[in-house]
Amino acid sequence: AQSVTQPDIHITVSEGASLELRCNYSYGATPYLFWYVQSPGQGLQLLLKYFSGDTLVQGIKGFEAEFKRSQSSFNLRKPSVHWSDAAEYFCAVGALDTGNQFYFGTGTSLTVIP
Amino acid sequence: DADVTQTPRNRITKTGKRIMLECSQTKGHDRMYWYRQDPGLGLRLIYYSFDVKDINKGEISDGYSVSRQAQAKFSLSLESAIPNQTALYFCATSDWGNTGELFFGEGSRLTVL
User: Fold this and answer.
1) Which residues of A fall below an 8 Å CB-CB distance to B?
2) pLDDT tens digits, residue range B68-92?
3) In chain A, which residues have their Cβ closer than 8 Å to the Cβ of B100?
4) Peptide bond between residue A40 and the one before it cis (omega within 30 degrees of 0)
5) Rounded Cα–Cα distance for residues A47 and A19 (Å)
6) What is the C-alpha to C-alpha distance for residues A46 and B3, in angstroms, rounded to an integer?
7) Closest Cβ–Cβ partner in B41, B50, B100 for A32
8) How would residue B98 be classed by pLDDT, with cut points 50, 70 and 90?
9) β-strand B73-78 against B102-104: which pairing, if any?
10) Is the distance from CB of B40 to CB of B18 less than 8 angstroms?
């Protein structure tokens, strides 16, 4: 069965520090992978996605993620965090063989301290 | 105006009441979804629809029903609300055949007393 694991429920980083949010997935075929961000009181916004090709993908707001098939991972990174990056981050898998459903992780809450 | 609009944005109701959450979209997408978000549980799929005549249950459909009135409208109903249906509900659309991205509404916060 498809699943997405985000092992870090909450992360606190200092402004200007680097960030890495972890995501592991379970899926039998090549997955479509996504990272979404949810700011307080808002819906979810797509940060970036991986379908195929280059395993390092660039997204909005200076985020990037790397697909590692051998590790079944799709970790999100940012070299220098801004206070406005404080939000909830969700990793998701798009599954082609189950009616194109999307499966979400439980999310990682990011706090940025001055 | 938002591409995916949900109404109401907030609703407080009592146990046993019937509630309808409405979703409309201007994206022109065939695929629409209803998700439920609970703290620590992420987003869980309630129902999804690939077109007006194609409606499918998600992982947590018990206690919910949906109606796809048109390509642009997808409503979620709670026939008899119960307190554990208190949650944040999201409608989303997808153009899977193009970018594959999900586009979300701003959410409907439902409280069942």
Assistant:
1) 6, 9, 32, 34, 36, 41-46, 49, 51, 90, 92, 94, 99-102, 104-107
2) 999 999 999 999 999 999 999 999 9
3) 32, 34, 49, 51, 94
4) no
5) 15
6) 14
7) B100
8) low
9) unpaired
10) no
